[in-house]
Amino acid sequence: MIYIGVTGWGDHDSLYPNQTQSRDKLKVYAGHFPIVEVDSAFYSIQPKRNAEKWVNETPKCFQFIVKAYQGMTGHQRGEIPFETKQAIFKTFKDSLEPYIQQNKLAMVLFQFPPWFTCRRENVDYIRWCKHEMDDIPCALEFRHQSWFAPAYLQKTLDFMKTEKWIHSICDEPQSGEGSIPTVLEVTDPLNVLVRFHGRNVNGWQKRNAENWREVRYLYRYNQKELQEWADRVERLAKECDNVYLLFNNNSGGDAADNAKEMMNLLQIEYEGLAPRQLDLF
Question: What residues form DSSP beta bridges with 195?
Answer without folding.
Answer: 170, 246
